[in-house]
Design a protein that fits this description.
14 helices; about 20% strand; about 30% helix
Length: about 550
């Protein structure tokens, strides 16, 4: 039998697995082998951690576009290709960078990386010497009656803040236990820049950030290229670990814990630190053009095929790092996010083989520079293959731990959309519980690519397995998640393993497949519920 005929039979078997037709053990086995193969290849040493602007990028996107071609997707990138060029700069802080603060005649220096890290947002070398002021969480949220900037002019100053936001159990106050965008580190930098601050230093704690300082201990990062209309940029967007935060806050007799308690208290008032912070930030800037990979399966309805559902997963990871004793210098990114890419590729493969095809089209987007602030997704949202006002739904896959067969799913943010009924129906069909996100206080909703689409008004969310895993207790699953964050996340330990159990991936795929297919065949487009932060953007895109 010819090889292409065999492959087609295997694909038809995989379609059967996802569409609810009784699967054979072979079809399940083939799908699992294909998923495992994608993860293993994308996380292999030759791809060198899939760093943006590197040989690893070239190899990763060639592989993904090759799989899109095999699946029969139509190129939706630039000039008839699968590639959408994303103009970036790689900004690197030099090893001679210094940061210190002075009070009276005494000067205290911070050690680069160990006690401070960060990059210039102006995309040039910077020297500054400015007053420092502690702004708590650095939030202005009039709808919650909160303004850390009230009565304070921070123009030309160094703003010192915590990430996260005031704790709450009240859904009407900062969303209750779930973190809002006000709590994200990106917001802290954005708000201070809007107000003309010279620099921002975020004091890191494991509790407020949700991950170790090692995750943010970086002196290099991709940024979208600036232009003349981009407004004021920070000379330095940095982080201080807890020990450095204690040194700085001691200038006003506070510890990190005491300062955080003040920041969490309603009525907080900014505290001038009575010091000047001096920074020397030598910066090199390399212009690069990275690429999203975009493919389309055209819908079957002559009118509705101009609208689309979109599936996303970022291909990039951290690339090569500094050699560390006992560890590779490759950040392989097997789970973050070769796992999501594997699901995206097989969803594309199976979606394209449907007969009849759904009425609306489907976009399959593998993004660049997610690790640098969702940059590829942000660029796509500004330059979409289908207008965002004609994009029904975004389903995102990012860091899917292979723990076995899930009996519950987490779809944080979906409950805020009118598409939630589709999720409930699919969950019932596949005997899955929809589980509240117990990590919502860490703001995972705002930490992956779907957020860029949501800001453009598209109902968007990620799909994760919940804590109910067949044959495992919730305690064991929680422990595995915490161990991943503490020991594996954004480290060279994120390597492919032959003993990983991928049997849960098809379960998530079936769940997502039915949601997307129903959205692609629905009469109208979903939107955000009344009062949601993204509803205005949806309405402005033309969806009522």
């Amino acid at each position: 039998m010819r090889e292409d005929t065999v492959n087609m039979m295997r694909i038809v078997s995989c379609v059967a697995v996802l569409s609810g037709i009784a699967p054979t053990s072979l079809s399940q086995e083939v799908l699992l082998d294909r998923l495992r193969g994608h993860v293993k290849h994308l996380a292999s040493a030759p791809l060198e951690g899939r760093g943006v602007g590197t040989r690893g990028e070239d190899l990763a996107i060639e592989y993904i576009s090759g799989e899109f071609t095999k699946a029969g997707l139509k190129p939706a990138g630039d000039r008839g290709t699968f590639y959408q060029a994303v103009p970036l700069v790689m900004v690197t802080t030099g090893p001679t960078a210094t940061l210190s603060f002075t009070k009276g005649d005494k000067s205290t220096s911070f050690k680069i990386e160990d006690e401070f890290a960060g990059v210039s947002k102006s995309q040039q070398s910077e020297d500054f010497d400015a007053e420092a002021i502690f702004l708590g969480h650095g939030i202005t949220a009039p709808e919650f009656g909160w303004d850390d900037y009230q009565g304070v002019d921070v123009k030309g100053k160094v703003v010192v803040v915590f990430t996260n936001e005031p704790p709450s159990d009240d859904p009407k106050f900062f969303g209750g236990t779930a973190l809002t965008y006000y709590g994200r580190w990106t917001y802290k930098y954005e708000e201070a820049a809007r107000r003309g601050a010279k620099a921002v230093l975020i004091i890191h704690t494991d509790v407020t950030a949700g991950y170790p300082y090692g995750v943010v201990k970086k002196l290099k990062g991709a940024q979208l290229r600036r232009n003349a209309n981009d407004g004021h940029a920070l000379a330095f967007a940095g982080w201080l670990p807890k020990n450095a935060g204690n040194k700085l806050l001691a200038s006003v007799g506070l510890t990190v814990e005491e300062a955080l308690a003040k920041a969490d208290t309603k009525g907080f008032k900014a505290i001038p630190l009575g010091v000047r912070i001096k920074g020397h930030i030598p910066t090199t800037v390399q212009k690069i053009v990275s690429r999203n990979v975009v493919g389309v399966v055209e819908g079957s309805d002559p009118a509705l095929k101009s609208e689309a559902v979109i599936f996303t997963a970022h291909w990039d990871h951290l690339g090569l790092g500094k050699p560390t004793p006992g560890l590779s210098n490759i950040h392989y990114g097997a789970l973050d996010n070769a796992s999501g890419c594997a699901i995206l590729l097989e969803m594309a493969n199976i979606w394209a083989k449907q007969n009849p095809r759904p009425k609306r089209s489907a976009v399959f987007l593998s993004t660049t520079a997610e690790e640098s602030g969702l940059l590829g997704a942000v660029f796509y949202a500004a330059n979409p293959a289908f207008p965002l006002g004609k994009t029904a739904l975004n389903l995102n896959f990012d860091t899917i731990l292979p723990l076995g067969i899930p009996e519950s799913v987490i779809v944080s943010g979906a409950e805020r959309t009118t598409a939630y009924g589709l999720l409930e129906a699919s969950a019932r069909k596949h005997k899955l519980d929809i589980e509240p996100d117990k990590m919502a206080h860490l703001g995972y909703y705002y930490r992956s690519d779907h957020f860029a689409l949501a800001r453009g008004g598209v109902p968007a969310f990620s799909i994760f397995p919940g804590e109910k895993i067949k044959g495992k207790s919730a305690e064991v699953v929680q422990k595995l998640h915490y161990e991943f964050i503490a020991k594996t996340y954004h480290t060279p330990n994120d390597q492919y393993r032959d003993d990983w159990d991928f049997t849960g991936y098809p379960v998530l795929m079936r769940f997502a497949f039915d949601i997307a297919r129903d959205a692609a065949n629905a009469k109208g487009l979903p939107t955000w519920r009344a009062g949601d932060e993204f509803l205005k953007a949806r309405q402005m895109s033309g969806v009522k």
